[in-house]
Amino acid sequence: MDFTYSEEQQMLADSLRRFIDTEYTFEARRKSARQGESLDRGVWNKLAEMGVLGLTVPADFGGFGEGAASQLVVQRELGRGLVLEPVTPSGVMAAAVLSAHGSDAQKQEWLPAIASGERIVTLAYLEPTTRYRPESARASAERSGDGYVISGTKSVVWHGAAADAYLLTARVSGSNEIALFLVPRDSKGLGVTAYPTIDGLRAADLSLQNVAVPASALVGQPADGLAALGVGLEHGIAALCAEGAGAMEKLIQITGEYLGTRQQFGKPLASFQALQHRMADMLVQKELALSMAYVAAQALDETDPAARRRMLSAAKVTVARAGRFVGQQAVQLHGGMGMTDELSVGDYFKRLTMLDQLLGDSDYHLQRFGEVMEA
């Protein structure tokens, strides 16, 4: 896989960076986050116009049909700007699931709407007792006539309040099959409780009480649920790794500018060798994270499932560790100001911290990496 930016990719990166610098300002982002809004429809429509939401959606369904390399370009820029909007859960993860496992009718109805920004779809697979193990799902899907009746709870649904539909896992009654269903937000018996997360984004808990869905809501076959969900999670991990690398890149830039202007003993802080060494360590960690983001993107084209899981877990753990290091160093190098809400450094630190928890934390991915290596 060639990660040298093509002319089109460079133009897209430049356009995104220009948009973030001029229109998606930090002040506007913080205002949206503090008002409890992680979806600005004006920003969302602009991202759709730029092709961000339909980047990996097949061209037959209104997208651009780009691959993992282009996705890395976009997510890196979104990470630099700490973009709040649900690009990853909808434009990356849900689009990947429906493209790979959706029926023709589901693709025709939902993929063009995702690409245009008209609809938002997110994954709902976590439950209070399952940790990151989707195979332990307790939500049930009872067969009823030509459809199913779903009951149970889902927790920490990423951008759940903004979604128009959920790709939701449930165990089919009378079997060990975990099926994946496309459940509209307005389904009778579906309740949504939204709340903020530490990084300024939003999540939600879902309660399902006898939610009736037709057989056409099933994504693939009942036995395909975990495989279909896995496609979305893998694309999401690769996107998060690229986003984390972009956030670290911007945070190092912000810290360098601060050290260059802040005076101590009549000299800028950047002139002190000890602080230069710490900045160099941050840069090394950022480059390591970016390299592993490339590994994660390359893993999406890996045909061996075991090798793909190994590459993605290694990337997720490495990026999380690098993000924690860069974030902590940035806060410390800003001194007391780094602990306040006045500067953006805290927002970057919170986002980099949260990246470790999303789609499996380091403990989970270290265990998965070990299981793959042992096998």
Automatic annotation (TrEMBL):
The keyword Nuclease does not apply. Keywords: FAD, Flavoprotein, Oxidoreductase. GO terms for molecular function: acyl-CoA dehydrogenase activity; flavin adenine dinucleotide binding. Residues 224-371 form the Acyl-CoA dehydrogenase/oxidase C-terminal domain. Pfam families: Acyl-CoA_dh_1, Acyl-CoA_dh_M, Acyl-CoA_dh_N. InterPro entries: Acyl-CoA_Oxase/DH_mid-dom (IPR006091), Acyl-CoA_Oxase/DH_mid-dom_sf (IPR046373), AcylCo_DH-like_C (IPR036250), AcylCo_DH/oxidase_C (IPR009075), AcylCoA_DH/ox_N (IPR013786), AcylCoA_DH/ox_N_sf (IPR037069), AcylCoA_DH/oxidase_NM_dom_sf (IPR009100). Residues 6-118 form the Acyl-CoA dehydrogenase/oxidase N-terminal domain. CDD domains: ACAD. Belongs to the acyl-CoA dehydrogenase family. This is Acyl-CoA dehydrogenase.
